[in-house]
Amino acid sequence: MSQEVVVSLKEVNKIFRTPKTEHHVLKGINFEVKQGEVVALIGPSGSGKSTCLRTINALETITSGDVEVCGINYRNSKKSLHMIRRNTGMIFQRFELFPHMTAIENVALGPNLVLGKSKDESYKMAKDLLARVGLANHMDKFPKGLSGGQQQRVAIARALAINPKILLCDEPTSALDPELVDEVVDILVDIAATGMTMIVVTHELYFAQKVSQRTMFLENGYIVEQGDTKKMFAAPKTERLQSFLKRITHQ
Amino acid sequence: MPDKKLSIYYSFLSFFVIGIIAFIIVRSFYHLDYQWDFSVLGPYIWLPSSDGGGPGLFLQGLWITIKMSFEGILFGSILGIIFGILLTTNEKVSKTAALIYVDIFRNTPVLVQLYVAYFIVGTAFNLSGSVAGVLTMSLFCSAYVAEIFRGTLANFEKGQIDAAKALGLSPLQIARKVIAPQALRNMLPPLVGQFVSLIKDSSLLSVVAIPELTKEAQNAVTVTFRSFETWFFIALLYFVVNTLVSSFGRYLEKRLSVSLKQ
Ligand SMILES: Nc1ncnc2c1ncn2[C@@H]1O[C@H](COP(=O)(O)OP(=O)(O)OP(=O)(O)O)[C@@H](O)[C@H]1O
Ligand SMILES: [Mg+2]
């Protein structure tokens, strides 16, 4: 495995400000993710996991600190923002497929508009990707005609279609019916096995164990504990993680 | 989704309401001591051959109503989109200006706007009644279109934009490929509602002596004294036009939302 650092956050602070309130959500986050690594991000609701993930592809601005993706810092220029988004794919809890486009149109949009490939080429790419996520027979369906699991698989294909170096997943299985979780987990595990760098926010400990080598436990805006996923779950060092794990396995 | 049991109650309730309304109408007409005679309207609809034939005053008025409403809708939509864009920008001055504009035209009676356009602005700039009329209808309509535009964009699902940004689309590509197709569909029902109400409001143009449908009806009543027949017939004409507009809107909505169905 190469040791190149592809994502690095340094002293990242994020404060949501409204005229009346200030909400300090990320309190000096530091971490690095190396190429090919799969990292899980866990923590209680509201601890800032989504916010942290979204700072990486600049869906969220940061208040202070530095975020670098593949050596690019989006503060430098508009162009670098675009390059960061080309290098990252994102999967959302609620899929966020474009409802007015068929599955194949959803997937072909990126190659066509972002990579500048021809329509034919984009559709061919989209076809291959949809086949890869097991949806060869559903390519011309609109999102509403697909099950949650199928929609999320289309969303995965869409994210992969721009050939990202890093895949960001924000609770990819938590909006799914329990019986549909595995089809999505299996595909994400497959993708991880191809050497894709991934950062996965999840509530499902078994998914975190299956997919990731390393886990970061975020609470109240701090990374409270991090380390090898299996070791961490088997023997949590901090009391906070202990009680979090206890709570989540009781549910 | 109402379950089976509930839907029986819903049917029952509808029959009940329809029954009451029917009763009121039948009873009212029964008590009305009036000799109906719709034949007097004939020459107003189609000129007798002794007068050379051709569309009568009602049909001519209907045409003017349709034409002026169409112009109002067209210019109103163009202006409305411009003001709508201003309302959604973050630029303070233009946003406030657009807001004031929209509020003035939405919160004052069209009739007053029409008087101002015709008697005050119209006198100063030598505007004809129809120009002042179309101008008023366009401005009035544009305020509503702007508000519909703003509302639709404000309620646009943020997750969709996030997904498009994450994919690396440029702001222009996001607007064209992701927002516009969905927002257009969402805007259609309120827009059609607005257009229908504009067509009805065009009857106010009668006060500035434009020979549109309502004006022709008033003229006919002063000659024939057949106000019931006249107004029922005029209402029917408005009903037909507006039903056509709404049906067309529903058809478009259906076509645009094929994708949103199963
Ligand atoms: N746009 C925003 N404006 C203001 N506050 C926000 C915004 N987005 C998130 N927050 C706040 O930041 C905090 C962290 O939110 P975030 O979504 O990152 O948590 P999370 O760990 O992903 O939680 P969950 O498990 O519920 O998804 C929350 O308290 C939330 O209310
Ligand atoms: Mg979250």
What is the count of structural domains of chain A?
A: 1
User: What profile does the largest beta sheet of chain B have?
Assistant: none
Q: Proportion of β residues of chain B?
A: under 5%
Strand elements of chain A, count: 9
Structural class of chain A: alpha/beta
Widest beta sheet: strand line-up of chain A:
5-6-7-3-8-9
Tell me the quaternary state: heterodimer
CATH topology of chain A: Rossmann fold
Instruction: Sum up the overall morphology of chain A in one term.
Output: globular
* Radius of gyration of chain A, in angstroms, nearest whole number: 18 Å
State which percent range the strand residues of chain A make up. Answer: 25-35%
State the fourth-level CATH superfamily of chain B.
Answer: MetI-like
Describe, in plain words, how this protein is organized in 3D.
The complex is a heterodimer of chains A (251) and B (262). By secondary structure, chain A is α/β, with parallel strands linked by helices. Chain A has a single domain, classed as Rossmann fold, CATH 3.40.50. Helices cover 39% and strands 25% of the residues of chain A. Chain A has 9 helices and 9 strands. Chain A has helices at residues 49-56, 78-87, 103-114, 119-132, 148-160, 178-193, 205-211, 229-234, 239-250, and strands at residues 5-17, 22-34, 38-42, 64-69, 88-91, 166-170, 197-201, 214-219, 222-228. A 6-stranded mixed β-sheet of chain A has the order 5-6-7-3-8-9, with helices on both faces. In chain A, α6 links the parallel β6 (166-170) and β7 (197-201). In chain A, α3 runs parallel beside α5, α4 (119-132) packs across α5 and α5 runs parallel beside α6. Chain A is globular. Chain A starts with a strand and ends with a helix. Chain B has 262 residues and is mainly α. Chain B has a single domain, classed as MetI-like fold, CATH 1.10.3720.10. Chain B is 78% helix and 0% strand. Chain B contains 10 helices and no strands. The longest helix of chain B is centred in the first third of the chain and has 32 residues, at 57-88. Chain B is globular. Chains A and B meet through α2, β5, α3 and α5 of A and α7 and α8 of B. The structure holds adenosine-5'-triphosphate and magnesium ion. The site of magnesium ion (MG) has 4 residues of chain A, from α1. Chain A: Residues 7-245 form the ABC transporter domain. Chain A: This is Cell division ATP-binding protein FtsE.
